[in-house]
């Protein structure tokens, strides 16, 4: 039977190319955030299971590290085709396991397919160099070698995108992988493991451990056989992982949270800016690292922008998640819902105005727009990770840049203006890993150097730049005999 059609929805570990029960024998319940009903039984991995998975990846590396680029290219191309083939199934998982609206789930599948294809293309481009030598008769060259076992740790919000991103580049570059999936989204990762096997990826090259990251994550990050850690998640956990990797001299790629500014100048196409603000903040109900949670609008158009943005936000669909018109779904967990409620309540109590939203329908929070927010309010500086944004009027571009930069984060930023000089000045002066002009703060493509500065992360991910992260340079010279 195709395991994807199993109905019991039990997720086991995936070690050495097969499903494996957790050594503890324990399983926990993964819940559908729409109504908190049980979605799947999930293996509760332990530090012993982490060790088993790393040993499996390490053993597999002996052969996998020597595979041909053409083989890795073929496996990843096949995996892309399979994700496309199983599109509907992945969409169903993304809807029921993490509460994705249909459009967001489709976006993730499209991204995963592109990312696997882009990674397949990288396999043949892992190139070294030849270079002049200061020694007469010395031939000098560099080659790149894979590192070995790479740990991937992923968040709940874009689980297919991130599990694919953090595994396809390591596999393309000849590394083997141990993935620690979010405890809130293990099914997506489990199904991906099966896809890799069906695509022909050798047993042991991709391993998956499920369980609670705060309990077993350190065992993975600090395992002596792990050569690099690719992490996406909150700044708090990222800082902890970076702290563990530092003394071990271990590579760590950290893609973390954000508080991304969207700037709207007086000459902007206001309808386009409103569309970008709605997409940028309410995509996946604000559970996006690049969400436009701070909107700076030039004073003379602030009222008109606010009026149109409120109308747009109030019209966003909140119906059945499978209805393509639905934009806003449930917040992932009670802990996260509490965080969203607290941010809104704190702002309200301290004098902010709730221009739109603020109420809940079950586990869904209506798209919420705040005005009159100041520095004393939590929502001003902290990542809410829900459908909540604030509008701040500003005098001019200089004030917009100063306020955009007044944050510890620096992931994405966007500006709407018809003045190319102002747009370019903004792009140069804003402290951010990514800047979009006349486009939303949310944007990602597999091959670009994606990432942020400050509390938003360390390093960049993307199929091309990953070659630097995931290979080790080796300088080789050959002394030729005298002529
Ligand atoms: P999180 O930090 O709570 O968890 C992320 C992962 O880390 C989970 O798999 C969790 O189990 C694991 N984890 C927890 N403690 C760990 C430890 N000590 N060692 C190793 N792993 C551990 O984040 P989340 O709630 O799943 O996701 C939301 C966060 O992710 C937001 O802050 C968001 O901005 C960020 N994010 C960033 C990007 C990006 O590319 N920059 C993309 C998506 C999400």
Bound molecules: nicotinamide-adenine-dinucleotide
CATH-defined fold name of the largest domain: Aldehyde Dehydrogenase, Chain A, domain 1
N-C termini distance? 67 Å
Q: Return the domain count.
A: 2
How would you classify the helix and strand content by structural class? Answer: alpha/beta
Shape: globular
- Beta-strand segment tally: 23
Strand residue percentage: 15-25%
Q: Give the second-level CATH assignment, the architecture of the largest domain.
A: 3-Layer(aba) Sandwich
Q: In which order are the strands of the major sheet placed? A: 15-18-19-14-13-20-21
Q: Look at the structure and name the CATH superfamily of the largest domain.
A: Aldehyde Dehydrogenase, Chain A, domain 1
Gyration radius over CA? 23 Å
Major sheet summary line: 7 strands, mixed
Q: Could you estimate the helical fraction of the residues in percent?
A: 25-40%
3D architecture notes:
With 483 residues, the chain is α/β, with parallel strands linked by helices. The chain has two domains: 3-256 and 452-474, Aldehyde Dehydrogenase, Chain A, domain 1, CATH 3.40.605.10; 261-437, Aldehyde Dehydrogenase, Chain A, domain 2, CATH 3.40.309. It contains 15 helices and 23 strands. It has helices at 47-64, 69-85, 87-98, 102-122, 159-172, 186-199, 213-221, 235-248, 270-282, 299-315, 334-349, 378-381, 397-404, 420-429, 466-470, and strands spanning 10-11, 13-15, 18-20, 27-32, 37-43, 129-131, 138-146, 149-153, 176-180, 206-209, 226-232, 251-255, 261-264, 294-298, 353-356, 360-361, 364-365, 368-371, 388-394, 412-416, 434-437, 457-458, 471-479. The strands form six sheets. A seven-stranded mixed beta sheet has the order 15-18-19-14-13-20-21, sandwiched between helices. Strands 10-9-8-11-12-22 form a six-stranded mixed beta sheet, sandwiched between helices. It has a three-stranded mixed beta sheet with strand order 1-5-4. Helix 8 links the parallel strand 11 and strand 12 (251-255). Helix 2 (69-85) packs across helix 6 (186-199). It is globular, with a radius of gyration of 23 Å. The protein starts with 9 loop residues before the first strand and ends with a strand. The structure holds nicotinamide-adenine-dinucleotide. The site of nicotinamide-adenine-dinucleotide has 29 residues, from helix 7 and helix 8. Residues 153-158, 180, 182-183, 213-214, 217-218, 221, 232-234, 237, 240-241, 255-258, 289, 383, 385, 411, 457 line the site of nicotinamide-adenine-dinucleotide (NAD).
């Amino acid at each position: 039977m195709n395991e994807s059609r199993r109905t019991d929805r039990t997720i086991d570990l995936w070690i050495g190319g097969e499903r494996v029960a957790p050594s503890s024998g324990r399983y926990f319940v993964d819940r559908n955030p729409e109504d908190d009903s049980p979605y799947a039984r999930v293996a509760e991995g332990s530090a012993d299971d982490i060790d088993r998975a790393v040993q499996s990846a390490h053993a597999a590396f002996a052969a996998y590290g020597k595979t041909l680029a053409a083989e890795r290219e073929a496996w990843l191309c096949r995996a892309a085709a399979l994700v496309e083939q199983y599109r509907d199934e992945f969409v169903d998982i993304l809807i029921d396991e993490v509460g994705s609206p249909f459009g967001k789930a489709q976006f993730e599948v499209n991204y995963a397919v592109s990312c696997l294809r882009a990674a397949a293309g990288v396999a043949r481009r892992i190139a070294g160099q030849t270079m002049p030598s200061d020694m007469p008769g010395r031939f000098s060259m560099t080659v790149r070698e894979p590192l070995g076992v790479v740990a991937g740790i992923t968040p709940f919000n874009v689980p297919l995108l991130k599990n694919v991103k953090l595994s396809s580049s390591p596999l393309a570059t000849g590394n083997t992988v141990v993935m620690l999936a979010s405890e809130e989204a293990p099914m997506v990762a489990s199904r991906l493991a099966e896809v890799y096997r069906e695509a022909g990826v050798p047993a042991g090259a991709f391993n998956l451990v499920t369980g609670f990251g705060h309990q077993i994550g350190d065992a993975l990050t600090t395992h002596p056989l792990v050569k690099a850690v690719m992490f996406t998640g909150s700044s708090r956990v990222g800082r902890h992982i970076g702290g563990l990797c530092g003394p071990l001299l271990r590579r760590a790629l950290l893609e973390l949270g954000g508080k991304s500014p969207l700037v709207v100048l007086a000459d902007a196409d206001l309808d386009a800016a409103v569309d970008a603000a709605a997409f940028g903040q309410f995509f996946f109900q604000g559970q996006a690292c690049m969400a436009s949670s701070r909107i700076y609008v030039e004073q003379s158009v602030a009222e008109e922008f606010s009026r149109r943005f409120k109308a747009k936000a109030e019209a966003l669909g909140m119906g059945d998640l499978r209805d393509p018109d639905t934009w806003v779904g449930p917040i992932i967990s009670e802990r996260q819902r509490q965080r969203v409620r607290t941010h809104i309540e704190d702002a309200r109590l301290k004098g902010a105005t709730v221009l739109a939203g603020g109420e809940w329908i079950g586990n869904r929070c209506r798209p919420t727009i705040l005005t009159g927010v100041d520095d004393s309010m939590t929502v001003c500086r902290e990542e809410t990770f829900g459908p909540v944004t604030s509008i701040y009027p500003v005098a001019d571009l200089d004030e917009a840049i100063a306020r955009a930069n007044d944050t510890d984060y620096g992931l994405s930023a966007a500006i709407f203006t018809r003045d190319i000089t102002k747009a370019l000045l903004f792009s140069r002066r804003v402290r951010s890993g990514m800047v979009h002009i006349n486009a939303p703060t949310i944007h990602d493509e597999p091959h670009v150097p994606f990432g942020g500065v400050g509390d938003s992360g360390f390093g960049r991910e993307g199929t091309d730049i990953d070659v630097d992260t995931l290979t080790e340079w080796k300088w080789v010279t050959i002394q030729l005999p005298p002529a």
